[in-house]
Each structure stands twice: as structure tokens, then as C-alpha cells.
Amino acid sequence: MSDRWSRAIKEAYAAAPSDTIILHTLELHHPAFSTPLRVVRDHQDLTATLEADAPVDGGQAVLFVAFPFDFRLPPRKRDGGPQELEIVIDSVDRQIIAALEDAVTQPHPIIAYYRPYLSTDLSQPHMIPPLRVQLRDVRVDVMRVTARARPDDYAQMPFPGELYTPERFPGLLR
Q: pLDDT digit string (tens) for 75-102?
């Protein structure tokens, strides 16, 4: 795994302890937004501290609103070209719909930051720097927001950044 992942989240991905939940968050930025739109993939809102050099509210505890969202990873391209992922946010409220509808009519891109947190440690994201993507082809309707995104310099990296192979992790074999 690259150095951007904390040791704690590496252990959580590898061991999947029952007392530690990985909380996935998205933060959307655009000049049309008065504040960034922050969501967490969970059933309850989350207050967590951003990394010190975050573009807005760095080092501060901020609120991520609970919304179901997902990353849909693309199928591997045979031509080796850049891959795009799809971001889907379901059950969005009118305030988010209005903000995004306004943003997509302007020439500035919507930037999204993905940050994973651990339920046992909300003092910082467990991926620094966070994954930054520019949203393209944003579609907004009354129930869902969908967008395609291409990571700036991570397009060819496997997620979560390390391949768990039997050669490196013999315990995977039964």
C-alpha cells in the first residue's frame, strides 16, 4: 500500500475486525457552494476531523451528513487507457439537488475528495492526502446524483492501493 494509507486502516482492510468500521466520506467543492457538501456512507451523521491541509476547514472537526452513496469501479480497460469511476449518491435532499443543479451549469468543475475514517479513530482521515477527483457528466434527478470521475494521478492504482496476493499474504490460502 502506498504511504498515503494509515497503518490502522491497512490493518482494518486486512483483518476486518468486528469492532472497527471503515466510514467512507465524500466532500464536494464548487464555487457555487457556500460551504462544501459533505456526506458519509452510513445511517447516522458523522463528525470527524479533516487533515491539517484540507482545502476548507483544515484540521477542524466537521459534520458529514448520512447519505447512501457508492463508488462503482470501472471494468478494467483492455487498451490500458485511464479508467473512470462512477459516484452515485442516493436519496439526496432538495438542498443538495439545488446546489448541484446550479453547479453543473457553470464552467467550473466539481471537485470531490474521498476520505476513509475508522469508527475507532475520527481524529483524522486514514488516507492522506485524500483521493481527489474531478466530477464529469454529473446528472441530477429527484432521487439520485450520478457522476463519472477520473482520479488525477491514481487512475491506474488498484483500490485500496495494495493487492492482497497469496505470495505476500500466505494466510489467504486455505
A: 555 555 556 788 888 877 787 788 888 8
Do residues 47 and 57 touch, judged by C-beta distance below 8 A?
no
The verdict on residue 1 lying in a domain is: no
Distance CA 166, CA 148 (A): 33
Amino acid in position 169: F
> Which residues are CB-neighbours of 91 under 8 A, at least 6 positions away?
67, 68, 143, 144
Could you tell me the three cell numbers for 48?
Answer: 470527524
Q: Does any domain span residue 172? A: no
Cβ partners under 8 Å of residue 131, min gap 6: 113, 114, 115, 151, 154
Number of domains in the chain: 1
Q: Which amino acid is at 79?
A: D
- Say what the pTM is: 0.76
Q: Which pairing describes strands 61-66 and 37-40: parallel, antiparallel, or unpaired?
A: parallel
The domain in which residue 105 lies consists of 7-151
